Amino acid sequence: MTTETHTETSTASGVVLTDVAAVKVKALIEQEGRDDLRLRIAVQPGGCSGLRYQLFFDERSLDGDVVNDFGGVGVVVDRMSAPYLTGATIDFADRIDAQGFTIDNPNAQSSCACGDSFH
């Protein structure tokens, strides 16, 4: 059994990407075979609770973007999403009971049962 250590680095935008998540994002970008991609984290209307997270790779730079580096991984948050994501921690779980990226957001007042959206 292996134990993973999830350390965090805080940034000016308030978003945190754990070391484990940074390693996973870096591996996924390397699989894409491109060095111009960054992880974009956004909040969009939708879902059963009103707002939905979006995580995707993006090469664009938009006006007002906040860009931070986590272990060589660029993380981008647009200016409209930044207030919703302040203090949020992005992690990656790879366990028998959970696999994938997780977002722990102290700004979410409530979330739906599926965990895909929040209010």
What does this structure look like?
A hairpin with a 5-residue loop joins strand 2 and strand 3. 15% of the residues lie in helices and 35% in strands. The radius of gyration is 14 Å and the shape is globular. It has a single domain (16-107), classed as Sandwich (Hypothetical Protein Aq_1857, Chain: A). Mean pLDDT is 81; it is low at 1-12. With 119 residues, it is α/β, with parallel strands linked by helices.
Q: What's this entry about, in short?
A:
With 119 residues, the chain is of the alpha/beta class.
Radius of gyration: 14 Å
- Main sheet? 5 strands, mixed
Count up the helices.
2
User: What's the helix-strand series?
Assistant: EHEEEEHEEE
- Mean pLDDT over all positions: 81
Shape: globular
The CATH architecture classification is: Sandwich
The proportion of residues in beta strands is: 35-45%
Segments where pLDDT lies below 50 for 5+ residues?
1-12
- What's the CATH H-level superfamily name? HesB-like domain
How far apart, in Å, are the first and last alpha carbons?
Answer: 37 Å
Strand order in the largest sheet: 4-5-2-3-8
Which structural class do you get from the secondary structure elements?
A: alpha/beta
Count of distinct structural domains: 1
CATH C-level class is Mainly Beta
Number of strands: 8
